[in-house]
Specification:
mainly beta, about 220 residues, Immunoglobulin-like, 4-stranded mixed beta sheet, 1 helix, disordered N terminus, binds copper (II) ion, 13 strands
Length: about 220
């Protein structure tokens, strides 16, 4: 069997964005979780520091749409996420997230699929496929219950593409599952498609192209 012809990199992780050299400036807007300084946050807004993360890698959540709810998670104990102290209602580690999730905010990201030279294992590959000129691609952060909106621009010269958000159930949004030929047509070269779905499940997962052998074009969310 022929080796994979190309590698795609990108990731939809729920954390930070790595440095992308020349792409850095244009992508800095893609850090919606970092743009508000902590000391400006009302205490009721959850502030989550991912384990072992750099000091500035802090995720700020916004549940202001949920009147009466306050943050009940602490650095030492994440079993409770948010709580309405008047009604006792909670979103916590025991909540069935297949059915219930908080209401957060919308977070937008842009992914640009393109080709570049990659040397991942000592062999130069001239037609590597990457997201945002980076391997792996940018992390995508969101808080539980946020709406994630990602516009994928296909700048691949000769390939269609689509992006699958691994680990997301896509309940009520099956058309956003990113499986070309099943839930959507491939995004044609130099066309774009915007995926919109709710972060119903929390945790860390990855995103990847679902077009033929492009599965290695991936990232973390
Ligand atoms: Cu997958």
């Amino acid at each position: 069997m022929a080796p994979l012809p190309t590698f795609w990199a990108g990731v939809l992780y729920v954390f930070d964005i790595l440095s992308f050299s020349s792409w850095k400036s244009s992508l800095s807007l893609q850090q919606p979780l970092l743009k508000i300084p902590i000391h400006h946050q009302a205490p009721k807004h959850p502030i989550f520091e991912p384990p072992n993360s750099p000091e500035n890698e802090v995720i700020l959540c916004d549940y202001s749409a949920m009147v009466g709810f306050e943050f009940c998670s602490t650095r030492e104990d994440r079993s409770c996420w948010i709580r309405n102290y008047d009604t006792g209602e909670e979103y916590n580690i025991s909540t069935d997230y297949e059915k219930y999730a908080p209401t957060g905010i919308k977070r937008h990201y842009d992914l640009y699929a393109s080709e570049m030279s990659l040397n991942l294992d000592g062999v130069e590959m001239h037609n590597g496929q990457v997201f945002n000129q980076s391997y792996p691609g940018p992390k995508i952060h969101a808080c539980w219950g946020d709406t994630i909106e990602v516009t994928v621009y296909n700048n691949l010269e000769k390939n269609g593409t689509s992006v699958h958000w691994h680990g997301m159930r896509q309940f009520n949004t099956p058309e956003m599952d990113g499986v070309n030929a099943v839930t959507q047509c491939a995004i044609a070269p130099y066309q774009s498609f915007t995926y919109t779905f709710k972060a119903q499940q929390y945790g860390t997962s990855w995103y990847h192209s679902h077009y033929s052998l492009q599965v290695c074009l991936c990232g973390v969310k």
